[in-house]
Design brief:
Structural class of chain A: mainly alpha
Pfam family, one (chain A): Prenyltrans
Keywords (chain A): Metal-binding, Prenyltransferase, Repeat, Transferase, Zinc
Strand content of chain B: under 5%
Protein name (chain A): Geranylgeranyl transferase type-2 subunit beta
Number of helices of chain A: 16
Largest sheet of chain A: 2 strands, antiparallel
Shape of chain A: globular
Number of domains of chain A: 1
Structural class of chain B: mainly alpha
Strand order of the largest sheet of chain B: 1-2
Number of helices of chain B: 23
Distance between the termini of chain A: 24 Å
Radius of gyration of chain A: 19 Å
CATH class of chain A: Mainly Alpha
CATH architecture of chain A: Alpha/alpha barrel
Order of helices and strands of chain A: HHHHHHHHHHHHHHEEHEEH
Shape of chain B: elongated
Oligomer: heterodimer
GO molecular function, one term (chain A): transferase activity
InterPro entries (chain A): PGGT1B-like, Prenyltrans, Ptb1, Terpenoid_cyclase/PrenylTrfase
Number of strands of chain B: 4
Chain lengths: 329, 529
């Protein structure tokens, strides 16, 4: 890591500013944007909290209030909505489970919430038993994001046996494309985000045998552009969030060294607001919590000093997944 | 005591009248009440109060005060006739006024506070009168509202108006007038009491709905704060959703909320439920949806909604091929409008595939997709999404492909002339932009589908790569060609040449992926040793 010490000041990680930025998100209730993003609130808490854990400041958000908020989003059917009064949906249910995993609070779910069993049932009921796919909610929209979310949350709760894993794996295989990537549905264009969800789902159930790692790794490493940043599809602009989607994929097939590490460090660090904190999609743009998390996870995957290690499969600190799942190594 | 002006001339009298007038205007409500109170009691009582007690009054005034006190009706009742007579005699002798009114001594805060927390007793009389007038208006408007509500109730029950002998009926004018009254009421309430009435509480059409305000745990980590209009709409949404109401007004409500926050997924789902229950014509909804989609290009709920609409309505047109074609064409026209804004929009492409499958828009159909996709690739040969759609179109066509054949495996059912055609197509596009990775990937994909070797296109690839390894004459017009050439060598077992290509890629032609090229070289060596 010697060469990193030689980076100019503006290319050092502004840890303190980032912590303050994330803490400030909850005190912006008078701002227009705050209520406009209400449908993402539970995701937002997960993004912010995970970023704080990576920055080694897990106590920067109050644990009790976090648990209260998460549980207030739960419905009778076990699922979680984005905020109180919002419909239950797979995406928020996964965030809720991840948050509770992160702060070691599954016992609170049993004591004060509807319990793990109800959450597991909510998720399992969203599987289409004929095709193996998962819907996001009762309305039936199905894609690989929901499949991954289901595997992620169920495995953290130790309840994967509630679903038909084999059928789900077959569906993921059908989403593989001629260029080595994976799409949202069979036939849909390869996209880094979908590649992450497909690979991570296969990793969780230990079914990576169908992955053409070299072909996929090649496609993923082709996502790096001369400025060091990564894009999500060919001929698209670079964006910090792909530091996570692309790199986590490469990490799951052990090929992060196929891209230029220092060039990506430089790109992510140039996207920081070093004064007010936060990371944006490209240098000079407005920061947000989503890009802040995925900038940090990118740095973590490449071993940036001072950051906690991220698990490329769960997008949670490795310390968390090891505590819950035991060491896989 | 007011100054004595009775000795002045006419002029002085005028100016004093003017002065008094000004005093009335600038006098506060409390001051006026205080002045009125003073007029109802004798001057020595006021003096006693101001000086702080009886002891400060002159002997005559003390006597007058005692008389005044004792002549109060309640006190008089305790005296005998004789004593009363004595008292009145003394009153006469003292020769002081005995004024007595029925009003209580005013208190400065007895009028309460206004919406800004200002004491209304401190208002000037003029301000106060304006306030009273507004309150009067509000009362009248409320009365009109009550009569509107009664009329609506009678009309709903079909009652007869005994004064006219006709059945009660609510006219458009009545509703219009009531809406206007509500607006005026809202303005008055806001002005007087700072109470806000949003667009729903002022709309008679929503009178029967009791809004459900947001409930949240106190001091929650992510407490939710809304601007008022949004909060009001949401509270009505919660109410109608809880009542499972599906009606034109609910449809309008969802439209309003979506215009404020199109990413709110719950409201979209509820809108779709309304459409199902009300059987809204597909094209009406599509027309509205098009406008929203163009306003919010990145929104994904819009496309999910469109897909639900397609699923819901397809059975009604499936029987008529003409209608299917017409719908396919109009959907494509709108998709192209979206692509004019962003030709790589993932949600739109996903919808396009869904549409293609559902309506059978394959390459050989009359309403097929191939021409449109060729047009898009001609417009931007680097549009990877268009390439991906072409692959789907060609290799998922149910007329000749194996059902559910994966994109990564050979499909022996695809005719050879189609494979040839696609190889030629990719090569023609590579010629236009040799460093464009999309047609190179496409070419490889086609070869796999056709079960052909990479080496079958070696001559073509070599057009872009010359004299590899020769420092002076080496020419590479496309790093993708060099990479493919390496794979062709590897396939043919020519390891040295493959290794040289990878070496040159890492050294010069694709340096950012040095790690990848070095790994390729190492694994080849490991495999051969």
């Amino acid at each position: 890591m010697a060469q990193l010490q030689n980076l100019p000041d503006e290319l050092q990680l502004a840890t303190e500013a980032h912590v303050k930025y994330i803490q400030s998100l909850d005190s912006r209730k008078d701002e227009y944007e705050y209520w406009l993003t209400e449908h993402l609130r539970l995701n937002g808490v997960y993004w912010g909290l995970t970023a704080l854990h990576l920055l080694k400041k897990p106590e920067a958000l109050p644990r009790d209030a976090t648990i209260d908020f998460v549980l207030s989003c739960q419905h009778e059917n076990g699922g979680f909505g984005a905020a109180p009064g919002h419909d239950a949906h797979m995406l928020y249910t996964v965030s809720a489970v991840q948050i509770l995993a992160l702060i070691d609070a599954f016992d609170e779910l049993e004591k004060r919430g509807k319990g793990k069993a109800a959450v597991g049932k909510f998720i399992a009921d969203l599987q289409n038993r004929e095709t193996g796919t998962f819907a996001g909610d009762e309305w039936g929209e199905e894609d690989t994001r929901f499949l991954y979310g289901a595997f992620n949350a169920l495995s953290l709760m130790g309840m994967l046996d509630l679903v038909d894993v084999d059928k789900a794996v077959d569906h993921i295989k059908a989403c593989a494309n001629f260029d080595g990537g994976y799409g949202l549905t069979p036939g849909a264009e390869s996209h880094s985000g979908q590649i992450f969800t497909c690979l991570a789902a296969l990793s969780i159930v230990g079914r990576m045998e169908s992955v053409e790692a070299d072909k996929l790794g090649k496609w993923l490493s082709e996502r790096q552009l001369p400025n060091g940043g990564l894009n999500g599809r060919p001929e698209k602009q670079e964006d910090v969030c792909y530091s996570w989607w692309v790199l986590s994929g490469l990490a799951m097939i052990n090929r992060t060294h196929w891209i230029d590490r220092n060039a990506l460090f430089g790109f992510i660090l140039r996207c920081q607001d070093t004064e007010k904190g936060g990371i944006s999609d490209r240098p000079g743009n407005m920061v947000d919590v989503w890009h802040t998390l995925f900038g940090l996870t990118g740095l973590s995957l490449l071993g940036y000093p001072g950051l906690d290690e991220i698990d490329p499969v769960y997008c949670l600190p490795k310390s968390t997944t090891q505590r819950i799942l035991g060491s896989k190594d | 005591m007011p100054p004595k002006n009775n000795k002045g001339g006419a002029k002085a009298k005028d100016s004093s009248a003017k002065q008094e007038n000004d005093v009335v205007k600038t006098q506060t409500v409390f001051e006026r009440a205080q002045a009125a109170y003073d007029l109802t009691r004798p001057p020595y009582d006021k003096e006693r109060e101001e000086l702080g007690g009886l002891h400060a009054l002159s002997t005559v005034e003390k006597t007058a005060y005692a008389n005044w006190f004792c002549t109060a009706p309640d006190e008089l009742a305790f005296l005998s006739k004789k004593a009363q007579k004595e008292l009145w005699k003394q009153v006469n002798e003292t020769n002081r006024p005995l004024r007595r009114g029925q009003i209580d001594k005013p208190k400065p805060d007895q009028w309460g506070k206004d919406k800004l927390g200002r004491n209304i007793g401190d208002y000037t009389v003029q301000q106060y009168e304006q306030r009273i007038e507004k309150q009067g208006q509000l009362t009248c408007l409320k009365a009109l509202g009550r009569s509107f509500a009664s009329k609506r109730l009678y009309a709903s029950k079909g009652l007869v108006d005994s004064s006219t002998g006709e059945v009660y009926k609510l006219t458009e004018e009545d509703i219009k007038a009531e809406k206007q009254h509500r607006k005026e009421m809202a303005a008055l309430k806001k002005d007087l009491y700072g109470e806000k009435m949003g667009p729903y509480s002022t709309d008679p059409e929503w009178d029967d709905v009791v809004p459900v305000p947001q409930m949240e745990p106190e001091g929650a980590l992510a407490a939710i704060a809304y601007p008022e209009d949004y909060a009001e709409s949401m509270s009505y949404l919660r109410a109608v959703m809880a009542a499972n109401e599906y009606s034109p007004r609910c449809l309008k409500l969802t439209e309003h909320i979506i215009s404020m926050n199109p990413a709110h997924y719950t409201v979209w789902l509820y809108r779709f439920a309304n459409i199902q229950h009300l059987d809204i014509p597909l094209l009406d909804e599509i027309e509205w949806l098009n406008g929203v989609a163009l306003d919010y290009l990145k929104n994904y709920q819009i496309w999910h909604h469109r897909q639900l609409l397609l699923e819901h309505y397809y059975p009604t047109i499936a029987g008529s091929p003409d209608e299917v074609k017409r719908f396919a064409r109009s959907e494509r026209a709108f998709i192209m409008e979206m692509f004019a804004e962003d030709a790589k929009n993932y949600h739109v492409w996903s919808y396009r595939q869904h549409l293609t499958r559902k309506l059978g828009m394959w390459e050989n159909e009359e309403h097929g997709e191939l021409d449109s996709i060729e047009g898009m690739i001609n417009d931007d040969v680097r549009n990877n999404s268009a390439w991906s759609h072409r692959f789907f179109l060609v290799f998922s066509n149910p007329r000749y492909s194996t059902p559910d054949s994966h994109a990564t495996e050979a499909d022996p059912k695809v005719p050879a002339d189609i494979i040839d055609r696609e190889i030629k197509y990719a090569q023609a596009k590579i010629k236009l932009a040799p460093q464009n990775q999309s047609p190179w990937n496409y070419l490889r994909g086609v070869l796999v589908k056709g079960g052909r070797e990479l080496g079958s296109v070696q001559a073509f690839v070599e057009m872009y790569v010359q004299n590899i390894g020769n420092e002076e004459t080496e020419q590479v017009h496309s790093s993708h060609a060099l990479e493919q050439l390496a794979d062709i060598y590897e396939e043919a077992g020519d390891k040295e040449k493959a290794d040289l290509c990878w070496k040159r890629l890492g050294e010069k032609w694709d340096r950012i992926r040095l790690g990848y090229w070095e790994w390729k070289r190492r694994s080849l060596k490991a495999a051969s040793s």
